[in-house]
Design goal:
This protein has 4 helices and 13 strands. It is an alpha+beta fold. The protein has 2 domains: 2-123, no CATH class; 134-185, no CATH class. The strands form 5 sheets. It has a 4-stranded antiparallel beta sheet with strand order 1-6-12-9, with no helix packed on it. A 3-stranded antiparallel beta sheet has the order 7-11-10, with no helix packed on it. A two-stranded antiparallel sheet has the order 2-8. Helix 3 crosses helix 4. It starts with a strand and ends in a 16-residue tail after the last helix.
């Protein structure tokens, strides 16, 4: 990754977005079919909401180049709210970036990203409900924890703030060598 114009953001300000797995059934995370840009775009159009109505940006974008090794998948990686400089890529409702076909060889692409932004300014009830839904079974410890947090929050916003605070105040680590998953994923 190379940033242009000497405007490299602080490491803490980078949030990388790849494929969004936004549906969890208690055992498996999957990508909701309605996450595609086409199905959600038509749903938003039914309500007279444009894609741009959902996003607020502040300031100028950063511009950077990404070199991606072959993944055999169509999705790409970029900083949050990335826009393709050349217009060759596709962006989904979940702000994911997709190539027109699988990445079978090294790919270089240029992006703009707005580091200061607000997304989902207008949110359909169906999207909100899907994002707040808990699975009916599996992972009982996590379900109990989520229910406890939810019971102490008066609003959806307070609940989300509680969840984010939990992740910020406790040590969670990313690993390429995770242990085998047990019952409590």
């Amino acid at each position: 990754m190379q940033f242009e114009g000497g405007l490299e953001p602080e490491h803490r300000d980078l949030y990388w977005r790849g494929l969004v797995l936004d549906n969890f059934d208690g055992l498996t995370s999957t990508r909701t079919r309605s996450s595609s840009s086409y199905s959600v775009a038509s749903a938003l159009a039914d309500f007279g909401i444009s894609y741009e109505d959902r996003i607020r940006i502040i300031g100028q974008p950063i511009t950077y180049n990404v070199i991606l090794e072959p993944t055999q998948q169509p999705w790409l990686f970029g900083s949050h709210l990335a826009q393709d400089v050349d217009g060759d890529l596709f962006r989904s409702r979940n702000l994911e970036l997709f190539n027109n076909g699988r990445i079978t060889q090294r790919l270089s692409y240029d992006l703009h990203s707005y580091m200061r932004n607000q997304t989902d300014v207008l949110l359909l009830d169906s999207m909100r409900n899907r994002s707040l839904r808990l699975p009916e079974e599996g992972n009982e410890r996590s379900l109990d924890f989520a229910r406890q947090l939810r019971a102490t929050a008066a609003t959806d916003r307070q609940y989300v703030i509680s969840v984010l605070a939990h992740f910020q105040q406790n040590e969670y680590f990313y690993t390429l060598n995770p242990p085998a998953l047990g019952e409590n994923r």
